[in-house]
Amino acid sequence: MDRRTLLCGLLALTASAPLAGCGTGAPTRRPGVGSARAGDRVAGLADVPVGSGALVDVGGDGQLLLVRASESEVRAFNPACPHQGTTVNPPAGGTISCPTHRSAFDPTTGAVLSGPSPRGLAEVAVAVSGPDVLLS
Ligand code: FES
């Protein structure tokens, strides 16, 4: 028995509701993607403006910020600001900005450019396949 299984078993004895990540066969959730799995369509390429981006709901309770740097290149980030969790805005004027305390992030890498955020936005792997953007 591994440590995770043991810990989940011990926590299940006292929990009144299912514990995230402790179910058998349940998908492991990654930040921003909810229950979506690799290969799931997250958006149409036409829904993501070139030079900007769009917030899209995925996997039930997930949300991604898609950024389209060129006709064929799309990157995705977890839009939860690492500072206090506010959903950041799609890129405008060359930066992704957080409306709460004004952290700014690089739209090509998610790196912090300014503000109180302790780190950059977490990138999520996506791929363009014809007219669709798919979770990788
Ligand atoms: S929550 Fe984004 S900068 Fe504070």
TrEMBL record:
Q: Where is the signal peptide?
A: 1-20
Spell out the CDD domains in the cross-references. Rieske (cd03467)
Q: Which InterPro entries match?
A: Rieske_2Fe-2S, Rieske_2Fe-2S_sf
Any coiled-coil regions, as ranges: none
Domain Rieske, by residue range, is 40-135
Q: Which UniProt keywords apply?
A: 2Fe-2S, Iron, Iron-sulfur, Metal-binding, Signal
Gene Ontology MF: a single term? monooxygenase activity
State what protein this is by name.
Answer: Nitrite reductase/ring-hydroxylating ferredoxin subunit
